[in-house]
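Worked example 3 (structure in, sequence out).
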């Protein structure tokens, strides 16, 4: 599991960001321009799954995320692992900044994602499934 950001200009990070973007594109998931961090699960040089993060900071801190798993690696718990990592990361950043922090899921495939999100305690709020991770 690797964490990469757009602003990391190393060749390895750039390749991972481009690979993650390609995985989302291949799955037909359009990411808006605010997605600037990724968690990537690799198998050798190939991406098995990725989570994209978009951070907003107002009076609260919000981490919107979307997940993609490559077809040959589905149903192996990789999405759960990515959601756990997003929650852990958002919680730690919220604690570090001492801010109320939320995780918001951008759901493209409700059949696959909703049971998983509900198992973590996410609830529908407007168009997002949200979970408060730091008070």
């Amino acid at each position: 599991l690797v964490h990469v950001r757009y602003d990391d200009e190393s060749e390895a990070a750039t390749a991972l960001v481009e690979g993650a973007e390609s995985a989302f594109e291949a799955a037909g998931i359009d990411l808006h321009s605010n997605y600037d961090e990724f968690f990537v699960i690799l198998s050798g040089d190939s991406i098995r799954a990725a989570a994209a993060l978009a951070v907003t900071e107002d009076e609260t801190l919000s981490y919107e995320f979307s997940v993609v798993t490559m077809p040959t690696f589905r149903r192996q718990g990789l999405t759960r692992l990515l959601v756990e990592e997003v929650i852990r990361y958002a919680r730690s950043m919220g604690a570090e900044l001492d801010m109320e922090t939320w995780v918001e899921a951008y759901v493209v495939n409700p059949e696959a994602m909703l049971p998983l999100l509900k198992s973590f305690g996410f609830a529908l709020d407007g168009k997002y499934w949200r979970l408060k991770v730091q008070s």
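Notes: Residues 78-97 form the longest helix (20 residues). The mean pLDDT is 93.
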